[in-house]
Design brief:
This protein is of the alpha+beta class and 481 residues long. Helix content is 30%, strand content 32%. The protein folds into four domains: 10-93 and 249-253; 100-244, OB fold (Dihydrolipoamide Acetyltransferase, E2P); 282-317; 324-480, Beta Barrel (FomD barrel-like fold). Strands 17-18-19-22-23-24-26 form a seven-stranded mixed barrel. The chain has a six-stranded mixed β-sheet with strand order 2-1-3-4-16-5, covered by helices on one side. The longest helix is centred in the last third of the chain and has 26 residues, at 455-480.
Length: 481
Protein backbone atom coordinates (compact mmCIF):
# COMPACT_ATOMS: atom_id res chain seq x y z
CA UNK A 1 0.00 0.00 0.00
CA UNK A 2 1.03 3.59 -0.54
CA UNK A 3 3.14 4.73 2.37
CA UNK A 4 2.20 7.84 4.29
CA UNK A 5 4.05 10.86 2.94
CA UNK A 6 4.73 9.33 -0.50
CA UNK A 7 3.87 11.54 -3.44
CA UNK A 8 3.21 8.90 -6.06
CA UNK A 9 1.93 5.39 -6.56
CA UNK A 10 4.33 2.56 -7.29
CA UNK A 11 3.90 0.10 -10.13
CA UNK A 12 5.64 -3.15 -11.04
CA UNK A 13 5.40 -4.18 -14.70
CA UNK A 14 6.36 -7.44 -16.38
CA UNK A 15 5.82 -9.04 -19.80
CA UNK A 16 5.76 -8.21 -23.51
CA UNK A 17 4.03 -4.86 -22.95
CA UNK A 18 6.45 -3.77 -20.20
CA UNK A 19 8.46 -1.17 -22.15
CA UNK A 20 5.45 0.66 -23.58
CA UNK A 21 3.50 0.54 -20.32
CA UNK A 22 6.52 1.69 -18.31
CA UNK A 23 6.75 4.73 -20.60
CA UNK A 24 3.03 5.43 -20.13
CA UNK A 25 3.13 5.20 -16.34
CA UNK A 26 6.34 7.21 -16.05
CA UNK A 27 4.61 9.91 -18.12
CA UNK A 28 1.79 9.80 -15.56
CA UNK A 29 4.24 10.25 -12.63
CA UNK A 30 4.03 6.73 -11.27
CA UNK A 31 7.17 5.30 -9.68
CA UNK A 32 8.48 2.10 -11.29
CA UNK A 33 9.62 -0.40 -8.67
CA UNK A 34 11.21 -3.85 -8.87
CA UNK A 35 12.04 -3.29 -12.56
CA UNK A 36 13.43 -6.09 -14.70
CA UNK A 37 17.06 -5.75 -15.80
CA UNK A 38 15.97 -4.70 -19.31
CA UNK A 39 13.55 -2.03 -18.04
CA UNK A 40 16.15 -0.81 -15.56
CA UNK A 41 18.63 -0.28 -18.41
CA UNK A 42 16.19 1.18 -20.96
CA UNK A 43 14.88 3.83 -18.61
CA UNK A 44 18.01 4.31 -16.51
CA UNK A 45 16.07 3.39 -13.38
CA UNK A 46 17.57 2.63 -10.00
CA UNK A 47 16.76 -0.85 -8.79
CA UNK A 48 14.14 -0.71 -6.05
CA UNK A 49 12.74 -3.35 -3.72
CA UNK A 50 10.01 -0.97 -2.63
CA UNK A 51 6.54 -2.54 -2.43
CA UNK A 52 4.13 -1.83 -5.27
CA UNK A 53 0.58 -0.49 -5.31
CA UNK A 54 -0.06 -1.72 -8.86
CA UNK A 55 1.11 -5.05 -10.32
CA UNK A 56 0.91 -5.48 -14.11
CA UNK A 57 1.76 -8.70 -15.94
CA UNK A 58 0.86 -10.54 -19.16
CA UNK A 59 -2.33 -12.48 -19.58
CA UNK A 60 -1.62 -16.10 -20.45
CA UNK A 61 -2.80 -15.55 -24.04
CA UNK A 62 -0.64 -12.39 -24.40
CA UNK A 63 -3.70 -10.47 -25.67
CA UNK A 64 -3.46 -7.96 -22.85
CA UNK A 65 -2.47 -7.69 -19.22
CA UNK A 66 -3.72 -8.53 -15.77
CA UNK A 67 -3.61 -5.74 -13.19
CA UNK A 68 -3.86 -5.91 -9.41
CA UNK A 69 -4.23 -2.55 -7.70
CA UNK A 70 -5.60 -0.79 -4.67
CA UNK A 71 -9.31 0.08 -5.03
CA UNK A 72 -8.63 3.82 -4.93
CA UNK A 73 -6.21 3.58 -7.88
CA UNK A 74 -8.64 1.77 -10.22
CA UNK A 75 -10.23 4.97 -11.67
CA UNK A 76 -6.79 6.42 -12.46
CA UNK A 77 -5.62 3.20 -14.14
CA UNK A 78 -8.77 3.08 -16.29
CA UNK A 79 -8.47 6.76 -17.19
CA UNK A 80 -4.81 6.42 -18.18
CA UNK A 81 -5.33 3.35 -20.37
CA UNK A 82 -8.52 4.58 -22.00
CA UNK A 83 -6.92 7.97 -22.58
CA UNK A 84 -3.97 6.49 -24.46
CA UNK A 85 -5.34 3.28 -26.01
CA UNK A 86 -8.45 3.69 -28.15
CA UNK A 87 -9.85 0.16 -28.10
CA UNK A 88 -8.55 -1.14 -24.76
CA UNK A 89 -11.21 -3.17 -22.94
CA UNK A 90 -11.10 -3.10 -19.12
CA UNK A 91 -12.98 -5.77 -17.20
CA UNK A 92 -13.22 -5.59 -13.42
CA UNK A 93 -13.59 -8.76 -11.34
CA UNK A 94 -16.21 -8.07 -8.68
CA UNK A 95 -14.65 -9.73 -5.60
CA UNK A 96 -11.56 -8.01 -4.21
CA UNK A 97 -8.49 -10.24 -4.20
CA UNK A 98 -7.48 -10.78 -0.58
CA UNK A 99 -10.60 -8.94 0.56
CA UNK A 100 -12.17 -10.09 3.83
CA UNK A 101 -15.94 -10.57 3.83
CA UNK A 102 -18.78 -11.48 6.13
CA UNK A 103 -20.53 -14.01 3.95
CA UNK A 104 -23.70 -16.06 4.14
CA UNK A 105 -23.83 -19.73 3.14
CA UNK A 106 -26.42 -20.07 0.41
CA UNK A 107 -25.87 -23.66 -0.74
CA UNK A 108 -24.02 -26.73 0.54
CA UNK A 109 -22.79 -29.44 -1.82
CA UNK A 110 -21.82 -32.29 0.54
CA UNK A 111 -20.89 -34.65 -2.32
CA UNK A 112 -18.14 -32.25 -3.44
CA UNK A 113 -17.28 -31.00 0.03
CA UNK A 114 -17.93 -27.35 -0.86
CA UNK A 115 -20.40 -24.60 -0.11
CA UNK A 116 -21.42 -21.45 -1.97
CA UNK A 117 -21.06 -18.28 0.07
CA UNK A 118 -22.63 -14.95 -0.90
CA UNK A 119 -19.95 -12.33 -0.09
CA UNK A 120 -21.59 -9.30 -1.71
CA UNK A 121 -25.12 -8.95 -3.07
CA UNK A 122 -25.30 -11.49 -5.94
CA UNK A 123 -21.54 -12.17 -5.74
CA UNK A 124 -20.60 -15.70 -4.68
CA UNK A 125 -17.50 -17.60 -3.68
CA UNK A 126 -16.68 -21.26 -3.14
CA UNK A 127 -15.42 -22.51 0.22
CA UNK A 128 -14.06 -26.04 0.72
CA UNK A 129 -16.28 -27.05 3.58
CA UNK A 130 -19.42 -29.12 3.94
CA UNK A 131 -19.55 -28.79 7.74
CA UNK A 132 -21.80 -25.72 7.53
CA UNK A 133 -25.49 -25.04 7.01
CA UNK A 134 -27.46 -22.77 4.71
CA UNK A 135 -27.85 -19.40 6.39
CA UNK A 136 -24.61 -19.62 8.42
CA UNK A 137 -22.53 -16.43 8.55
CA UNK A 138 -18.79 -16.87 7.97
CA UNK A 139 -15.73 -14.62 7.94
CA UNK A 140 -13.93 -15.50 4.71
CA UNK A 141 -11.13 -14.14 2.55
CA UNK A 142 -10.76 -14.27 -1.23
CA UNK A 143 -7.73 -16.39 -2.15
CA UNK A 144 -4.82 -14.17 -3.23
CA UNK A 145 -3.22 -16.85 -5.40
CA UNK A 146 -6.17 -18.42 -7.22
CA UNK A 147 -8.66 -15.94 -8.54
CA UNK A 148 -10.59 -15.07 -11.71
CA UNK A 149 -13.47 -17.23 -12.81
CA UNK A 150 -17.16 -16.98 -12.10
CA UNK A 151 -16.78 -17.66 -8.38
CA UNK A 152 -14.03 -16.56 -6.02
CA UNK A 153 -12.16 -19.24 -4.07
CA UNK A 154 -12.53 -18.52 -0.37
CA UNK A 155 -10.64 -19.39 2.79
CA UNK A 156 -11.36 -19.03 6.49
CA UNK A 157 -7.60 -18.73 7.20
CA UNK A 158 -7.41 -14.94 7.34
CA UNK A 159 -4.24 -13.08 6.36
CA UNK A 160 -3.67 -9.37 6.92
CA UNK A 161 -1.25 -8.33 4.19
CA UNK A 162 1.06 -5.33 4.42
CA UNK A 163 4.00 -4.04 2.44
CA UNK A 164 6.67 -5.78 4.50
CA UNK A 165 4.81 -8.34 6.58
CA UNK A 166 1.71 -10.53 6.72
CA UNK A 167 -0.21 -11.29 9.90
CA UNK A 168 -1.55 -14.85 10.05
CA UNK A 169 -3.76 -16.53 12.70
CA UNK A 170 -1.03 -18.97 13.72
CA UNK A 171 1.67 -18.44 16.34
CA UNK A 172 4.73 -18.66 14.12
CA UNK A 173 7.42 -16.55 12.43
CA UNK A 174 8.20 -17.13 8.74
CA UNK A 175 10.58 -15.34 6.38
CA UNK A 176 10.55 -14.96 2.59
CA UNK A 177 12.87 -17.46 0.90
CA UNK A 178 14.33 -14.59 -1.11
CA UNK A 179 15.91 -13.25 2.07
CA UNK A 180 19.04 -15.42 2.20
CA UNK A 181 21.36 -13.47 4.50
CA UNK A 182 21.54 -15.53 7.74
CA UNK A 183 22.12 -12.48 9.93
CA UNK A 184 19.10 -10.69 8.44
CA UNK A 185 16.96 -13.79 8.87
CA UNK A 186 18.00 -14.13 12.52
CA UNK A 187 17.24 -10.44 13.09
CA UNK A 188 13.75 -10.83 11.58
CA UNK A 189 13.03 -13.93 13.66
CA UNK A 190 13.90 -12.09 16.88
CA UNK A 191 11.99 -8.98 15.83
CA UNK A 192 8.95 -11.08 14.93
CA UNK A 193 8.99 -12.83 18.30
CA UNK A 194 9.13 -9.45 19.98
CA UNK A 195 6.28 -7.94 17.96
CA UNK A 196 4.01 -10.93 17.39
CA UNK A 197 0.62 -10.48 19.11
CA UNK A 198 -0.88 -13.40 21.03
CA UNK A 199 -2.71 -15.78 18.71
CA UNK A 200 -1.06 -14.34 15.58
CA UNK A 201 2.10 -14.96 13.60
CA UNK A 202 4.18 -12.93 11.16
CA UNK A 203 5.46 -13.69 7.66
CA UNK A 204 8.22 -11.27 6.70
CA UNK A 205 8.07 -10.35 3.01
CA UNK A 206 11.08 -9.73 0.75
CA UNK A 207 10.52 -5.97 0.91
CA UNK A 208 11.38 -6.09 4.62
CA UNK A 209 15.01 -5.87 3.46
CA UNK A 210 14.48 -2.38 2.10
CA UNK A 211 13.39 -0.52 5.28
CA UNK A 212 14.49 0.19 8.81
CA UNK A 213 13.58 -1.61 12.03
CA UNK A 214 11.34 1.32 12.98
CA UNK A 215 9.42 0.98 9.70
CA UNK A 216 8.89 -2.72 10.37
CA UNK A 217 7.64 -2.07 13.88
CA UNK A 218 5.34 0.65 12.57
CA UNK A 219 3.89 -1.69 9.95
CA UNK A 220 3.05 -4.41 12.47
CA UNK A 221 1.17 -1.85 14.57
CA UNK A 222 -0.77 -0.70 11.50
CA UNK A 223 -1.63 -4.29 10.58
CA UNK A 224 -2.90 -4.89 14.11
CA UNK A 225 -5.08 -1.79 13.86
CA UNK A 226 -6.52 -3.08 10.56
CA UNK A 227 -7.16 -6.44 12.19
CA UNK A 228 -9.05 -4.81 15.08
CA UNK A 229 -11.10 -2.71 12.64
CA UNK A 230 -12.31 -5.64 10.56
CA UNK A 231 -13.12 -7.68 13.70
CA UNK A 232 -15.10 -4.74 15.06
CA UNK A 233 -16.89 -4.24 11.76
CA UNK A 234 -17.72 -7.95 11.59
CA UNK A 235 -19.67 -7.70 14.83
CA UNK A 236 -21.60 -4.63 13.69
CA UNK A 237 -22.67 -5.36 10.10
CA UNK A 238 -24.97 -7.89 8.52
CA UNK A 239 -23.66 -10.07 5.72
CA UNK A 240 -23.07 -10.23 2.91
CA UNK A 241 -20.61 -7.35 3.27
CA UNK A 242 -16.94 -6.50 2.83
CA UNK A 243 -15.03 -6.07 6.08
CA UNK A 244 -11.59 -5.16 4.75
CA UNK A 245 -10.54 -4.10 1.27
CA UNK A 246 -8.25 -6.25 -0.82
CA UNK A 247 -6.94 -5.58 -4.32
CA UNK A 248 -8.98 -4.90 -7.43
CA UNK A 249 -8.31 -7.30 -10.31
CA UNK A 250 -8.53 -5.82 -13.82
CA UNK A 251 -8.45 -7.93 -16.96
CA UNK A 252 -7.26 -5.58 -19.71
CA UNK A 253 -7.57 -6.53 -23.37
CA UNK A 254 -5.30 -4.89 -25.97
CA UNK A 255 -6.98 -5.36 -29.37
CA UNK A 256 -5.31 -4.45 -32.67
CA UNK A 257 -5.47 -0.67 -32.38
CA UNK A 258 -4.08 -0.69 -28.84
CA UNK A 259 -1.20 -2.93 -29.90
CA UNK A 260 -0.30 -0.47 -32.68
CA UNK A 261 -0.37 2.49 -30.30
CA UNK A 262 1.80 0.56 -27.85
CA UNK A 263 4.22 -0.16 -30.73
CA UNK A 264 4.55 3.58 -31.34
CA UNK A 265 5.11 4.32 -27.66
CA UNK A 266 7.72 1.56 -27.42
CA UNK A 267 9.53 2.88 -30.49
CA UNK A 268 10.18 6.13 -28.60
CA UNK A 269 12.32 4.13 -26.19
CA UNK A 270 14.02 1.42 -28.25
CA UNK A 271 14.09 0.16 -31.90
CA UNK A 272 10.73 -1.50 -32.52
CA UNK A 273 9.52 -3.39 -35.59
CA UNK A 274 6.03 -2.60 -36.90
CA UNK A 275 3.55 -5.02 -35.37
CA UNK A 276 5.85 -5.75 -32.43
CA UNK A 277 3.12 -6.54 -29.87
CA UNK A 278 0.96 -8.42 -32.40
CA UNK A 279 3.91 -10.61 -33.36
CA UNK A 280 4.92 -11.15 -29.72
CA UNK A 281 1.39 -12.43 -29.03
CA UNK A 282 1.32 -14.60 -32.20
CA UNK A 283 3.42 -17.56 -31.05
CA UNK A 284 6.72 -18.28 -29.31
CA UNK A 285 8.63 -18.70 -32.58
CA UNK A 286 7.64 -15.32 -34.01
CA UNK A 287 8.15 -13.71 -30.61
CA UNK A 288 11.76 -14.93 -30.59
CA UNK A 289 12.25 -13.71 -34.18
CA UNK A 290 11.01 -10.24 -33.18
CA UNK A 291 13.64 -10.12 -30.44
CA UNK A 292 16.31 -11.14 -32.94
CA UNK A 293 15.15 -8.59 -35.53
CA UNK A 294 15.19 -5.74 -33.02
CA UNK A 295 18.60 -6.81 -31.78
CA UNK A 296 19.87 -6.52 -35.36
CA UNK A 297 18.31 -3.06 -35.69
CA UNK A 298 20.05 -1.92 -32.50
CA UNK A 299 23.34 -3.13 -34.00
CA UNK A 300 22.78 -1.07 -37.15
CA UNK A 301 21.48 -3.66 -39.62
CA UNK A 302 19.45 -2.47 -42.61
CA UNK A 303 15.87 -1.85 -41.46
CA UNK A 304 14.53 -2.70 -44.92
CA UNK A 305 16.29 -6.07 -45.00
CA UNK A 306 15.32 -6.98 -41.43
CA UNK A 307 11.63 -6.13 -41.94
CA UNK A 308 11.52 -7.90 -45.31
CA UNK A 309 12.79 -11.12 -43.76
CA UNK A 310 10.43 -10.81 -40.80
CA UNK A 311 7.43 -10.31 -43.11
CA UNK A 312 8.42 -13.42 -45.06
CA UNK A 313 8.46 -15.46 -41.88
CA UNK A 314 5.08 -14.03 -40.81
CA UNK A 315 3.60 -14.94 -44.19
CA UNK A 316 4.68 -18.56 -43.73
CA UNK A 317 2.83 -18.66 -40.40
CA UNK A 318 -0.45 -17.29 -41.80
CA UNK A 319 -3.20 -19.61 -43.04
CA UNK A 320 -3.69 -20.25 -46.76
CA UNK A 321 -6.67 -20.54 -49.09
CA UNK A 322 -8.39 -23.88 -48.53
CA UNK A 323 -7.43 -24.03 -44.86
CA UNK A 324 -10.03 -24.34 -42.12
CA UNK A 325 -9.84 -21.68 -39.41
CA UNK A 326 -11.92 -20.54 -36.43
CA UNK A 327 -13.47 -17.13 -35.82
CA UNK A 328 -12.67 -16.17 -32.20
CA UNK A 329 -15.59 -13.93 -31.27
CA UNK A 330 -14.57 -12.39 -27.92
CA UNK A 331 -17.44 -10.84 -25.96
CA UNK A 332 -17.00 -7.67 -23.91
CA UNK A 333 -17.28 -9.76 -20.73
CA UNK A 334 -14.26 -11.80 -21.86
CA UNK A 335 -16.09 -14.96 -22.94
CA UNK A 336 -14.73 -16.33 -26.22
CA UNK A 337 -17.12 -17.97 -28.69
CA UNK A 338 -15.35 -20.10 -31.28
CA UNK A 339 -17.33 -19.88 -34.52
CA UNK A 340 -16.49 -22.42 -37.17
CA UNK A 341 -14.74 -24.19 -38.63
CA UNK A 342 -14.74 -21.84 -41.61
CA UNK A 343 -13.06 -22.64 -44.92
CA UNK A 344 -10.88 -19.90 -46.44
CA UNK A 345 -12.14 -19.36 -49.98
CA UNK A 346 -10.02 -16.28 -50.62
CA UNK A 347 -7.17 -14.61 -48.76
CA UNK A 348 -5.10 -11.74 -50.15
CA UNK A 349 -2.20 -11.16 -47.76
CA UNK A 350 -1.32 -7.89 -49.55
CA UNK A 351 -4.57 -6.07 -48.74
CA UNK A 352 -5.81 -8.31 -45.93
CA UNK A 353 -9.13 -9.28 -47.53
CA UNK A 354 -10.45 -12.69 -46.60
CA UNK A 355 -13.60 -14.64 -47.54
CA UNK A 356 -14.79 -17.53 -45.38
CA UNK A 357 -17.51 -20.13 -45.88
CA UNK A 358 -19.28 -21.96 -43.09
CA UNK A 359 -21.81 -24.75 -43.55
CA UNK A 360 -24.76 -24.60 -41.15
CA UNK A 361 -25.42 -27.94 -39.45
CA UNK A 362 -27.84 -27.08 -36.65
CA UNK A 363 -31.45 -25.84 -36.87
CA UNK A 364 -32.64 -22.69 -35.12
CA UNK A 365 -33.23 -19.02 -35.87
CA UNK A 366 -30.73 -16.43 -37.09
CA UNK A 367 -30.42 -13.78 -34.37
CA UNK A 368 -31.69 -10.39 -35.49
CA UNK A 369 -32.94 -11.71 -38.84
CA UNK A 370 -36.04 -13.55 -37.55
CA UNK A 371 -35.67 -16.26 -40.17
CA UNK A 372 -35.36 -20.01 -39.76
CA UNK A 373 -31.87 -21.51 -39.74
CA UNK A 374 -31.78 -24.90 -41.45
CA UNK A 375 -29.11 -27.57 -41.84
CA UNK A 376 -27.67 -27.15 -45.31
CA UNK A 377 -27.67 -23.35 -45.17
CA UNK A 378 -24.31 -21.70 -45.58
CA UNK A 379 -22.72 -18.44 -44.48
CA UNK A 380 -20.26 -16.30 -46.43
CA UNK A 381 -18.17 -14.01 -44.25
CA UNK A 382 -16.22 -11.14 -45.78
CA UNK A 383 -13.57 -9.49 -43.64
CA UNK A 384 -10.48 -7.36 -43.94
CA UNK A 385 -7.63 -7.53 -41.49
CA UNK A 386 -7.64 -4.32 -39.47
CA UNK A 387 -11.27 -3.47 -40.28
CA UNK A 388 -13.81 -2.56 -37.62
CA UNK A 389 -16.60 -4.86 -38.78
CA UNK A 390 -17.29 -8.38 -40.01
CA UNK A 391 -19.94 -8.97 -42.66
CA UNK A 392 -21.74 -12.32 -42.92
CA UNK A 393 -24.44 -13.18 -45.47
CA UNK A 394 -26.65 -16.23 -44.95
CA UNK A 395 -28.06 -18.38 -47.76
CA UNK A 396 -30.31 -21.41 -48.07
CA UNK A 397 -28.92 -24.61 -49.57
CA UNK A 398 -30.39 -23.42 -52.89
CA UNK A 399 -28.48 -20.13 -52.64
CA UNK A 400 -31.46 -17.98 -51.63
CA UNK A 401 -30.49 -14.92 -49.57
CA UNK A 402 -31.75 -15.15 -45.98
CA UNK A 403 -30.18 -12.03 -44.53
CA UNK A 404 -26.93 -10.28 -43.65
CA UNK A 405 -25.38 -9.57 -40.29
CA UNK A 406 -22.67 -6.96 -39.88
CA UNK A 407 -20.87 -7.32 -36.58
CA UNK A 408 -19.09 -4.21 -35.26
CA UNK A 409 -15.90 -5.13 -33.47
CA UNK A 410 -12.35 -4.07 -32.70
CA UNK A 411 -10.05 -4.27 -35.75
CA UNK A 412 -9.71 -7.86 -36.94
CA UNK A 413 -6.43 -9.71 -36.32
CA UNK A 414 -5.33 -12.93 -38.02
CA UNK A 415 -3.24 -15.70 -36.50
CA UNK A 416 -2.07 -19.11 -37.70
CA UNK A 417 -5.44 -20.84 -37.46
CA UNK A 418 -7.97 -18.20 -36.42
CA UNK A 419 -9.08 -14.61 -36.79
CA UNK A 420 -9.80 -12.66 -33.64
CA UNK A 421 -11.59 -9.52 -32.48
CA UNK A 422 -13.59 -8.19 -29.54
CA UNK A 423 -17.29 -7.90 -30.26
CA UNK A 424 -18.51 -4.37 -29.49
CA UNK A 425 -22.12 -5.62 -29.17
CA UNK A 426 -23.61 -3.38 -31.88
CA UNK A 427 -24.80 -5.06 -35.09
CA UNK A 428 -26.40 -3.89 -38.31
CA UNK A 429 -28.83 -6.38 -39.88
CA UNK A 430 -30.47 -6.69 -43.29
CA UNK A 431 -33.29 -9.24 -43.49
CA UNK A 432 -34.61 -10.98 -46.59
CA UNK A 433 -37.30 -8.27 -46.93
CA UNK A 434 -34.64 -5.51 -47.14
CA UNK A 435 -35.40 -4.20 -43.64
CA UNK A 436 -32.32 -2.63 -42.03
CA UNK A 437 -31.90 -2.41 -38.26
CA UNK A 438 -29.22 -1.42 -35.76
CA UNK A 439 -29.18 -3.74 -32.74
CA UNK A 440 -27.84 -3.69 -29.16
CA UNK A 441 -26.36 -0.20 -29.03
CA UNK A 442 -27.74 -0.09 -25.47
CA UNK A 443 -25.30 -2.86 -24.49
CA UNK A 444 -22.35 -0.71 -25.56
CA UNK A 445 -23.86 2.20 -23.62
CA UNK A 446 -23.88 0.00 -20.53
CA UNK A 447 -20.24 -0.97 -21.13
CA UNK A 448 -19.37 2.74 -21.32
CA UNK A 449 -21.12 3.38 -17.99
CA UNK A 450 -19.13 0.53 -16.43
CA UNK A 451 -15.85 2.06 -17.69
CA UNK A 452 -15.24 -1.09 -19.73
CA UNK A 453 -14.78 0.92 -22.93
CA UNK A 454 -13.59 4.46 -23.53
CA UNK A 455 -15.71 7.37 -24.67
CA UNK A 456 -13.51 7.58 -27.78
CA UNK A 457 -14.26 3.97 -28.67
CA UNK A 458 -17.97 4.53 -28.13
CA UNK A 459 -17.86 7.49 -30.52
CA UNK A 460 -15.85 5.48 -33.05
CA UNK A 461 -18.59 2.86 -33.11
CA UNK A 462 -21.16 5.53 -34.03
CA UNK A 463 -18.90 6.55 -36.94
CA UNK A 464 -18.67 2.93 -38.06
CA UNK A 465 -22.46 2.51 -37.92
CA UNK A 466 -22.85 5.53 -40.19
CA UNK A 467 -20.23 4.17 -42.60
CA UNK A 468 -21.98 0.79 -42.77
CA UNK A 469 -25.40 2.35 -43.36
CA UNK A 470 -24.06 4.70 -46.04
CA UNK A 471 -21.53 2.43 -47.76
CA UNK A 472 -22.05 -1.28 -47.04
CA UNK A 473 -25.82 -1.67 -46.87
CA UNK A 474 -26.36 -0.35 -50.46
CA UNK A 475 -23.81 -2.90 -51.71
CA UNK A 476 -25.56 -5.76 -49.91
CA UNK A 477 -28.99 -4.72 -51.22
CA UNK A 478 -27.68 -4.34 -54.76
CA UNK A 479 -26.06 -7.79 -54.68
CA UNK A 480 -29.23 -9.33 -53.27
CA UNK A 481 -31.45 -7.83 -55.92
Amino acid sequence: MLLEGDGMYRVRIRGIYATALTKIFLDENFEIVQPSVVIEERFDLPFSLKPYDVDIYDRTDKQGVSILCLPEIKPSIASILHGRLLDAIIRCWKPQVGGIYKGIVREVDKSRGICYVEIEPDVFGILKSSNVFVGDELIVQVDRERFRGRHALLSTDIKIVGNYAILIPKETIKISRKIRDPDKRLFLVKLGQELRPRGWGIIWRTAALSVSEEDLKSEILKLLDRCKLFISRASNVNGPAILMDGLVFLDVEFPSESKKILDTIRSEVTPTVPGHHYLKSFNTELSALVDMAESLLRKGSSREEVLSRLNQLLSINLPQEGDDIVIKHVKLNGKTINIGPARIEHFNQSDGTIVLRRNIVSPGVYDGLNVVKSPGDYAITRAKIGEWFLETRYFSCEGKFKGAYININTPIEIYSNFIRYVDLEVDVCVDYKDNVSVLDRDKLCEALKMNMVSKSLFERVDEIIKHILDERIPVILEAKN
